[in-house]
Amino acid sequence: MRWFLGYTCCDACGRLFVKGNYCPVCLKVYRDSESTPMVCCDICQRWVHCHCDGISDEKYLQFQVNNHLQYRCASCRGECYQVHIEIQLRVVNLEVAIQPIHL
Q: pTM to 2 decimals?
């Protein structure tokens, strides 16, 4: 089995993370075909699981029918400082993991 991001996830999940297919609140990856309710942040353009940001089913439906409703994720609101640190660590680990080995 191949590992990504400093042995923190498998090859398939690592590729999704590098592609940007992860929730900025919980950092879990998702497939484009996933049916879990998610909303897109109007600031960072990341998709967030509704349950990660406390978005009710009613509010989710409002986002679906009203394109003028604006959404800012917890990360863009400055409420997830640890997420920024965790993402930076994962990116650094990824950059270290893909460095060529010089013999």
A: 0.69
